[in-house]
Amino acid sequence: MVKFILKIFFTAAVILGLARLLPGVHIDTYWTAIVVALVLAVLNAFIRPILIFLTLPATLVTFGLFLFVINAGIILLDAYFVHGFKVNNFWWALVFSILLSVILSFFDGLEKQQEHKSE
């Protein structure tokens, strides 16, 4: 549970940093970023698998590139639900989702590498 909470806080920090870096993404406060991270976790856990299943033919035809569209849609859905988080359009959501995924994957890989070294 502690690991989940720390991951939410770290994700919120990355979200806030990306919102300051990208002109098409706006976020009010760090607390809003925490809410965005929580809602994103819920959407990724419940809605994303359903969308992936329903769009499986499109994902296969595009060799997986349609997953980028799903990720951007999840970000736009998050912006719809969270007051204080705004994404100007689909393209900013796409850039934001790609950068967020890359940064979080990088640090997740570092964490797993550190766990492997400690064993």
Count, helices = 5
- State mean pLDDT (0 to 100 scale): 94
The overall strand count is 2
Beta fraction: 5-15%
Instruction: Supply Rg.
Output: 15 Å
Query: Termini, distance in Å?
Result: 21 Å
What order do the SSEs take from the amino end to the carboxyl end, as H and E?
HEHHHEH
Helix content: over 70%
pLDDT < 50 stretches: none
Shape: globular
Structural category: mainly alpha
Let me know the largest β-sheet.
2 strands, antiparallel
Question: Care to describe what's here?
Answer:
By secondary structure, the protein is mainly α. It is 81% helix and 5% strand. The protein has five helices and two strands, in the order H-E-H-H-H-E-H. The chain has a two-stranded antiparallel sheet. Helix 1 (2-21) packs across helix 5 and helix 2 packs across helix 4. The chain is globular, with a radius of gyration of 15 Å. The two termini are 21 Å apart. The mean pLDDT is 94.
